[in-house]
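User: Please fill in residues for this 293-position structure.
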């Protein structure tokens, strides 16, 4: 058996098209255009690429992209002052502070200055708490993307055993709550988990978000399982370098029922979900119903 390859690019393009249509309807109704502010501190090359791509996608969806760049030498107080100003600016609907921040800046302090109504990354303490409590809020983008991709091949996840490899704030922990909300049975696995291969083999849905290249071997995958690979690992040097996931794709695809590639799987979904959160935030801030995207 060879797995279906889950085309994250196509799923994301479809979502972005629906968002663009919904942005047009929002504008017709409110005479306003949703705006996403992205704050980039320093000159980390990977972050610069991400921020550029986010800006392009935001404009392509018909929204305003507002970029703020601060030098790596910026103080924590300067970054906080900028985030406070964006929180107070009515024309800004979403705020994203690109991570990682330079050493010496407390990312938690900065993130928690974001108005939770504009927290399109879902990373403030209030957003995290609301997700835990099952209350309406803004949900982190990458976990949202993982669930959408899993549902693209299995629309009802109820009863499935979801194993999540990795317990980060950005992906693993919020993803566990989203799968629980889908009535999955959820197992969190991590670097200290005993018999990791066996735990993975029990998964109907295996999400690898450990940040370790090819950690998941082919024989860790149960026959027919859905494999969602969140890893983005650069291996090799210079021109010979390439991006690989946390799953040994070639070995896993022989056993899985469906699998996401890297690149072209979860990655494109993260930006699409960011656009969705921006539109949702813009609607909620004006007392409008959530757009159906
Ligand atoms: N850096 C890598 N991934 C992310 C993300 O999802 N949000 C932010 N703000 N920074 C990141």
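Assistant: Residues filled in for all 293 positions:
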């Amino acid at each position: 058996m060879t797995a279906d390859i889950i085309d994250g690019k196509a799923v994301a393009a479809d979502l972005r098209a629906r968002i663009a249509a919904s942005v047009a309807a929002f504008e017709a109704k409110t005479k306003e255009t949703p705006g996403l502010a992205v704050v980039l501190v320093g000159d980390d090359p990977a972050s610069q690429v991400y921020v550029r791509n986010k800006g392009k996608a935001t404009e392509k969806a018909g929204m305003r992209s507002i970029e703020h760049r601060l030098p790596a030498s910026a103080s924590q107080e300067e970054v906080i002052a900028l985030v406070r100003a964006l929180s107070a600016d009515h024309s800004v609907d979403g705020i994203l502070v690109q991570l990682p921040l330079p050493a010496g800046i407390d990312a938690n302090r900065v993130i928690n200055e974001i108005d939770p109504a504009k927290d399109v990354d879902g990373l403030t303490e209030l957003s995290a708490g609301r997700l835990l409590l099952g209350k309406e809020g803004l949900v982190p983008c990458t976990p949202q993307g993982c669930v959408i991709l899993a549902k693209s091949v299995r629309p009802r996840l109820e009863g499935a055993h979801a194993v999540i490899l990795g317990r980060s704030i950005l992906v693993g922990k919020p993803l566990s709550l989203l799968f629980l909300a889908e009535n999955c049975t959820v197992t969190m696995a991590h670097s200290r988990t005993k018999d990791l291969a066996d735990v993975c083999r029990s998964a109907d849905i295996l999400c690898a978000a450990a940040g370790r290249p090819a950690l998941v071997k082919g024989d860790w995958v149960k026959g027919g399982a859905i494999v969602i690979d969140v890893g983005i690992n650069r291996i090799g040097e210079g021109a010979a370098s390439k991006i690989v996931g946390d799953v040994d794709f070639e070995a896993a695809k022989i056993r899985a029922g469906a699998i996401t590639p890297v690149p072209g799987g979860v990655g494109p979904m993260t930006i699409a979900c960011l656009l969705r959160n921006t539109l949702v935030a813009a609607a909620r801030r004006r007392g409008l119903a959530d757009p159906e995207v």
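For context: The radius of gyration is 19 Å.
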